[in-house]
């Protein structure tokens, strides 16, 4: 799986994400002068192995220039942040289904089940407002329902390998 970030300063953003991404997915950073004006449709969820580990990942991200973000999440057990260039990401509470560094790549969708099926990978789980596939190797690819308007720009894009 490959995630591409558009950025006004690709080397700086690459340095930030190199602290968290591990080798589970390929991250690419390309230059763009288009300003970030809305919530990204795609974001990364980082995994944690304990409440202390979750707090450590959040503290490291904040020290490296991340900020807390409110995207309407209310009272949830995960922490929503923005990287130094405004891209949203989450640090999840410990969940056994997410053993890697990156738990999931999350994609907003009007029809999560249809979007998950369109990947060509088997839908592993689905429910009210979400559907997930698990391309191997790598993190989960999760689609969550949104009624948000289509974004003006897509500063973060995902490309995944076709199933064999």
UniProtKB/TrEMBL annotation:
Segments forming domain Glyoxalase-like:
3-92
Source superkingdom: Bacteria
Check the record and name the InterPro entries matching this protein.
Answer: Glyas_Bleomycin-R_OHBP_Dase (IPR029068), Glyoxalase_6 (IPR041581)
Query: This chain belongs to which protein, by name?
Result: Glyoxalase-like domain-containing protein
